[in-house]
Amino acid sequence: ANTAWNAETERLEPRFAFSGRAEAAVLPAGPKAAARDLLREHVRRGRAAGNHGDLYDNRDRGHSALEPEAHPQLTHVTYAPAAQAADLDYGLNDRLLFDRPTLGNSSTAITGGPHWRSLPRQALTRPDGAGPMRLWQTASANHVYVHPAHRDYGGRNGDLFPANTPYLIVSRGSSGSDKPFLEALALTFAAFRPDAKAAMAAAGMVNSTVQMVLRRSLRDVTSREIYFSGAAHPAAFDGWQVNPARMVSLANSIKADALPAEARIRVVEETLGAEGVDYFGAGLSERLFDTPQAVARVWRSSAGRRRMILSAEDSRDANGRPLNFEWRLLQGDPAKVKIEPLDGGARARVTLDWHDPFRISEENDQLTSRVDIGVFANNGVHDSAPAILSWAFPAHETRRYAPGPDGAPRIASIDYADAGKAATYADPLIYPRAAWRDAYRYAADGRPLGWTRHRPSGDAADAYATDAYSPEGARVIEAAAADGTPLQVAPVAYTLRPGPGGVLDIAEVSADFGAGGAP
How far apart are CA 117 and CA 124, in angstroms? Predict the structure, then answer.
């Protein structure tokens, strides 16, 4: 391969050359299995492309890898000593873009330190914010990678992913849980018809097509309606749900003039919270990321209800077929989420209320603090994989809402340091900690009057110091005795400081108050 640096993508781009014809068989003579037998028959009839020209990129140095003998046409990427020394062969692939359809894996995770996490969560929470866009960049280059969820899904902490995307395949479990997916992917890549595979590769739609094939073929996904539900689109997939035979059949049924569309999502209108008033911490944002097929937000604001207008108008069909759209709640409380299609479904208005941690479903009873909304594009032949909006909620906070004058939930109090939630996990790369509780005040006519802040004072567990704040977030120095109207206020800022255990602490700073959250 010849490798060059691409300044536009900021990636190394190896280029491969293959002979015109495959010298090896698509599959060896054995073992016999339904998916393999189906693929052998498609190959015999000349209907399957095989794996000639496909790459397999193992990124855990053989820890959990496909055996070369299992898929003889699949080209295994090897790395020179210099590349290995630079760790180009290990972990997330966010530095290389190959020029061929690629399936790969790294059965690794960050297992120590305060920032432990799976590789997918690492990509979603990179401090520089570039991880999600690199995931999309990799997926749009026809790469499909599988990584274990490790402790981020299904453990005692439940579902810890701040977002759900169609860019990766995340396997539920740890080392080796990716194996069933790798086998199914190799068979699926081989099962595509030659002209369809060439067309989807040219359009950069291998990943989006494979994502649809995997999800539509899961063992429990037996109808279109189930495909439009969260059962087909979890943040991490169980290996026992993979159905390679169905994947081979569906992949081979896709024709070059009817490739599945690629659903895309974009925020048209939204109102995000204001730092220093609705939430606290200089430099923090409620916008986690915006990418073409996945959008993610973090609910930091004290608001009880949010409204957004989303667009799927950037969705694309490789053959120019007209698209229809389905907007569905994949994960969340239906009583707290309203989706209203607009413009014939090309847009949607989403109204979303605050969610405390909840069980994902009756079938999947683990806790999550994330709401997912998916949009699917249908081109008259196939439904696409979903583009996804995710909202992550801070599970370590204790919030109380009450109906406001308009019936919408209105904040009553937020305890950022509830001792009862001291053991609740909160991602330190997303959620800093504060050491106070805010109780919100309202006039008889419903006008917000600000909040009263309660901080620990002294050694006694029930000793608190209190301060009042205006609706604009300033600390009240002097107020009118009659109605509490602020007469003198001090501006307040909130800085982030390194705290114990890798967590950032929020420190309050005002003109008369000093720093550190105490007078």
Answer: 10
Instruction: Tell me, yes or no, whether 309 and 388 share the same domain.
Output: yes
Burial 299-325 (b: 16+ CB within 10 A, else e): bbbbbbbbebbbbbeebbbbeebebeb
Q: Which of 355, 395, 373 is nearest to 163 (CA)?
A: 373
Q: Residue 512 class from Cβ within 10 Å (0-12 exposed, 13-18 middle, 19+ buried)? A: exposed
Q: Are the CB atoms for 101 and 201 separated by under 8 Å?
A: yes
The single-letter DSSP state of residue 144 is E
User: Do residues 377 and 279 share a domain?
Assistant: yes
Residue 113 has pLDDT above 80, yes or no: yes
- Of 236, 258, 280, the residue that ends a domain is 258
CA distance linking residue 127 with residue 496, whole number of Å: 14
In 363-516 the beta strands, taken as DSSP E runs, fall at 367-368, 370-378, 387-392, 398-403, 409-415, 437-442, 448-456, 464-469, 475-479, 486-490, 492-498, 504-510, 514-515
Looking at the fold, whether 71 and 175 belong to one and the same domain comes out as yes
* Cα 116 to Cα 299: distance, rounded to the nearest angstrom: 22
What's the pLDDT tens digit per position in 177-223?
999 999 999 999 999 999 999 999 999 999 999 999 999 999 999 99
Q: How far apart are CA 180 and CA 174, in angstroms?
A: 13
Q: How many domains does the chain have?
A: 3
Summarised one tens digit per residue, pLDDT across range 450-484 is 999 999 887 666 678 999 999 999 999 998 777 77
State whether 226 and 357 are in the same domain. Answer: no
Same domain, 135 and 241: yes
Rg (Cα) of the chain, in Å, rounded? Answer: 26
Mean pLDDT of 69-79: 98
Q: Domain check: are 449 and 500 in the same one?
A: yes
CA atoms within 13 A on the CB side of 99: 12
Give the range of the structural domain holding residue 286, as residue numbers without chain letter. Answer: 266-392
Asked if 105 and 89 count as a contact pair (C-beta separation under 8 A), the reply is no
In 113-265 the beta strands, taken as DSSP E runs, fall at 117-118, 143-148, 169-171
Residues 252 and 275 reside in one and the same domain: no
Tell me: do 12 and 87 sit in the same domain: yes
